[in-house]
Write a structure and sequence with these properties.
Helix content is 36%, strand content 29%. The protein has 154 residues and is of the alpha+beta class. Strands 1-4-3-2 form a 4-stranded antiparallel beta sheet. The longest helix is centred in the C-terminal third of the chain and has 22 residues.
Length: 154
């Protein structure tokens, strides 16, 4: 169950993520993979091991880390944001990474390159808070590259 303290924090994180997504949609920076497709989908943990490992890294280190490629990169044609969050012994952590594609490979499929990743030590919290924080960071990073071509966490 959720503690009384985690409910306002969860509402704030959800509002913040919603604002990021809505702003990106309005500015034309967010669109579905195909005109008929949803812009998001759930990926099970066993197929998202890198984001899970990044969250575990934050738990082991007890701190946050972010790595991003140079802002000199041209605007990508496509981006993918992957994230995961979890809670162990009441300590919430999150991991995320962003892939970008500037074109297709020899088979006509997007050629993906990692452009940013992060391990986030959330601190006392729940899995829901960790997931929301991971989604917030991943979306912010992806949209930073698409809309303004640089990434700055404050």
């Amino acid at each position: 169950g959720a503690s009384a303290a985690s409910i306002p924090l969860r509402a704030y994180a959800l509002r913040n993520l919603s604002h990021i997504i809505h702003s990106a949609w309005e500015s034309g920076c967010l669109a579905p993979r195909q005109p008929f497709a949803s812009w998001e989908r759930h990926v099970f943990r066993e197929h998202n091991t890198y984001a899970d490992a990044l969250a575990s890294h934050a738990r082991k280190m007890g701190s946050c880390q972010v790595c991003a490629m140079s802002s000199l990169l041209s605007r990508p044609l496509r981006v993918q944001a992957w994230f995961d969050g979890g809670c162990e012994n009441s300590i919430a952590t999150a991991g995320w990474y962003v892939l970008a594609s500037w074109g297709n490979d020899g088979f006509g499929m997007p050629a993906w390159s990692e452009i940013a990743w992060g391990s986030v030590y959330v601190g006392p919290g729940t899995s829901m808070i960790a997931e929301l924080r991971a989604a917030e960071h991943a979306m912010y990073a992806a949209l930073s590259y698409v809309c303004v071509r640089h990434l700055r966490f404050e």
